[in-house]
Predict the structure.
Amino acid sequence: MHGPAASGWLLVALCAATGAYCLLRMRSSVEEQRRSAGGEALMGFGMAAMAVPAAVFTPPSWAWPAYAVAFGAAGLRFLWATRGEACHLHHPLGAAAMVYMAVAMPLSPGPGQGHAHGSAGLPLLTGLLLLYFTGYVLVTGVRLVPVTAVAGSPPPGAAGASGWGDRPELARACRLSMGIATVAMLMTM
């Protein structure tokens, strides 16, 4: 990723931490958490790899098609798992955005060398993806705002949660951080 190296490394750290938490969620006793956690871990680690500043590391030419294939396979898996459930189309759309970025990044040479950002992407598609992910980030952020709880009652969603890895608000926070990272990456296109 081009731009200040500090912001690139912060993006790498955010995505890698999110991927690591998603790996921990794969051990959850809640089936829904386990189902989505593996793909989300792949997305987090893949985004971290794509966000490494270009001044530090330029991936080999075969890396971009490999990213596209990995994210494409994850997107197909997400589509198969959802099978028409419109409320769960965020994951396939996120994978499609990553395929798009993996294809567009090497096409546009930016400042310096390597994985480039700039005018490679289709402006309309980039704009639509930015619009969707910005809306997703805003809506998800609002959902994380705590609701005033009645004294003595458990927080919403805590009834079925047995450990910190099963807390739905942490999973939502991870999805929010990946959404923010996607917006940041799309803005550099």
Notes: Residues 5-187 form one domain.
